[in-house]
Amino acid sequence: MTRVFNFSAGPAMLPTEVMEEAQAEFLDWHGTGMSIMEVSHRGKEFSVVAEEAEHDLRDLMGIPDNYKVLFLHGGASMQFSAIPLNLTQPGDTVDYFNTGVWSKKALTEAGRFANVNVVAEHTTAIPDPSTWQLSDNAKYVHYTPNETIGGLQFHFIPEVGDKPLIADMSSCILSEPLDVSRFGMIYAGAQKNIGPSGLGIVIVREDLIGHARPETPVLLDWKTQADNDSMYNTPPTYSWYMAGLVFKWLKRKGGLEAIGEVNRRKAKKLYDFIDSSDFYHNPVRPQDRSIMNVPFTLAKPELDQAFLKESDAAGLKYLKGHRLVGGMRASIYNAMPEEGVDALIAFMKDFERKYG
C-alpha cells in the first residue's frame, strides 16, 4: 500500500517503522503467544514494557529523579481538573496565560475550583513579559507552550518566580530539548508526538504530590497514581506500549537535539514559502510561530474546498483548519518526514499557479 502524508493535529501520524514493529509482534509479543493487548497489566510481561517506557522517557527528556512520571487515562483534558484539585484549596488563586483555545479550556475548568487570574491574553503573539499580571499569592502558574489550533508557541520558558510552573505540552512534548527542572508539572496527551489517543503523561515534582482536596476523585489524585505506579486500575496498556516504541524510535533518531533540528528545518521551509507568497498567509507573529502546527489561509477563501479536495487527492490528508478558526492547518509533528513538507509545498505552489 501507499502511505499518505497525514497532517492531522491528532490523532496524528505515527512513525512508519514503529507501526511496522507493532504489526510484526501484534499476535505474538516476544514469543508469549499473546498480543501485548492481551497480557495482564500486572504481569511480568507488561511490567517490562512499563519500566522501559518510563526509563526511555526519562532519558530522552532528562527528567530529574525528584519527579514522578505517570501514564494515565483521559489524555491532557483530564488534567484540567486534576491540577487545581491537587494543588489548591477552595478560595485559592491560580494564574493562567490565555493564548488560545486550549489554554482557555484549561482556565475555564480551573475556574470551577479556584479563582483564576489571567496573566496575559493574546492569540497571535506572545505578550511581552513586562505586561504580565502575575499574582503574588498564586498557587501555580499555568501556560500552554504550543497552541495546537492557533499555531502560537512560547519559544522560552516563562519566569514566574517561586510559583510552580505548569505546562500543557500536548502538541510540543518531545519536539526539542527541554529543561524539565524549570517546571512543577508537565502534562500531555499522547496523540500528537507520543502515540495513540487515550493516554495522558504527567511529569510532576514530588513535593507537589499528596496535597489533593478530600473530595478529589481517586483517579485524579496524583498520589494515588504515583503510589500505584499508574496502575490503580487497568491503564491504557496498548497506548502505553506504543508510546514506549516511539520513545525508542526517538532515541534511535538521535534524541531531542536531533529531532529538534529536523522540526525547525521543516517549519522554516513551510513558513518561508508561505511568507514568499501573496496567495497564502499565516497570522502569527513570526518569532512566535509554532514549529508543530502551521495554520494558513488562502487569499481567496472561496477556493478552500477546492484546495482541500485536490490536496486530499494528492495524498495530503487532514489539512482543513479547526472549525473555530477556518482556513488550513498543517501539523508537522515528529513523525512527519521532511519529504511530506516538501510535497505539501510543491502542491501549494501548483495550486497557486492554477488559481492565483
Automatic annotation (TrEMBL):
<keyword id="KW-0718">Serine biosynthesis</keyword>
<feature type="modified residue" description="N6-(pyridoxal phosphate)lysine">
    <location>
        <position position="192"/>
    </location>
</feature>
<dbReference type="GO" id="GO:0004648">
    <property type="term" value="F:O-phospho-L-serine:2-oxoglutarate aminotransferase activity"/>
</dbReference>
<keyword id="KW-0664">Pyridoxine biosynthesis</keyword>
<feature type="binding site">
    <location>
        <position position="102"/>
    </location>
    <ligand>
        <name>pyridoxal 5'-phosphate</name>
    </ligand>
</feature>
<keyword id="KW-0028">Amino-acid biosynthesis</keyword>
<keyword id="KW-0808">Transferase</keyword>
<feature type="domain" description="Aminotransferase class V">
    <location>
        <begin position="4"/>
        <end position="344"/>
    </location>
</feature>
<dbReference type="GO" id="GO:0006564">
    <property type="term" value="P:L-serine biosynthetic process"/>
</dbReference>
<dbReference type="InterPro" id="IPR020578">
    <property type="entry name" value="Aminotrans_V_PyrdxlP_BS"/>
</dbReference>
<comment type="similarity">
    <text>Belongs to the class-V pyridoxal-phosphate-dependent aminotransferase family. SerC subfamily.</text>
</comment>
<dbReference type="InterPro" id="IPR015422">
    <property type="entry name" value="PyrdxlP-dep_Trfase_small"/>
</dbReference>
<dbReference type="InterPro" id="IPR015424">
    <property type="entry name" value="PyrdxlP-dep_Trfase"/>
</dbReference>
<dbReference type="InterPro" id="IPR015421">
    <property type="entry name" value="PyrdxlP-dep_Trfase_major"/>
</dbReference>
<dbReference type="InterPro" id="IPR022278">
    <property type="entry name" value="Pser_aminoTfrase"/>
</dbReference>
<comment type="pathway">
    <text>Cofactor biosynthesis; pyridoxine 5'-phosphate biosynthesis; pyridoxine 5'-phosphate from D-erythrose 4-phosphate: step 3/5.</text>
</comment>
<keyword id="KW-0963">Cytoplasm</keyword>
<protein>
    <recommendedName>
        <fullName>Phosphoserine aminotransferase</fullName>
        <ecNumber>2.6.1.52</ecNumber>
    </recommendedName>
</protein>
<feature type="binding site">
    <location>
        <position position="191"/>
    </location>
    <ligand>
        <name>pyridoxal 5'-phosphate</name>
    </ligand>
</feature>
<comment type="pathway">
    <text>Amino-acid biosynthesis; L-serine biosynthesis; L-serine from 3-phospho-D-glycerate: step 2/3.</text>
</comment>
<keyword id="KW-0663">Pyridoxal phosphate</keyword>
<dbReference type="GO" id="GO:0005737">
    <property type="term" value="C:cytoplasm"/>
</dbReference>
<dbReference type="Pfam" id="PF00266">
    <property type="entry name" value="Aminotran_5"/>
</dbReference>
<dbReference type="InterPro" id="IPR000192">
    <property type="entry name" value="Aminotrans_V_dom"/>
</dbReference>
<feature type="binding site">
    <location>
        <begin position="233"/>
        <end position="234"/>
    </location>
    <ligand>
        <name>pyridoxal 5'-phosphate</name>
    </ligand>
</feature>
<comment type="subunit">
    <text>Homodimer.</text>
</comment>
<keyword id="KW-0032">Aminotransferase</keyword>
<dbReference type="GO" id="GO:0030170">
    <property type="term" value="F:pyridoxal phosphate binding"/>
</dbReference>
<comment type="function">
    <text>Catalyzes the reversible conversion of 3-phosphohydroxypyruvate to phosphoserine and of 3-hydroxy-2-oxo-4-phosphonooxybutanoate to phosphohydroxythreonine.</text>
</comment>
<dbReference type="GO" id="GO:0008615">
    <property type="term" value="P:pyridoxine biosynthetic process"/>
</dbReference>
<feature type="binding site">
    <location>
        <position position="148"/>
    </location>
    <ligand>
        <name>pyridoxal 5'-phosphate</name>
    </ligand>
</feature>
<feature type="binding site">
    <location>
        <begin position="76"/>
        <end position="77"/>
    </location>
    <ligand>
        <name>pyridoxal 5'-phosphate</name>
    </ligand>
</feature>
<feature type="binding site">
    <location>
        <position position="168"/>
    </location>
    <ligand>
        <name>pyridoxal 5'-phosphate</name>
    </ligand>
</feature>
<feature type="binding site">
    <location>
        <position position="42"/>
    </location>
    <ligand>
        <name>L-glutamate</name>
    </ligand>
</feature>
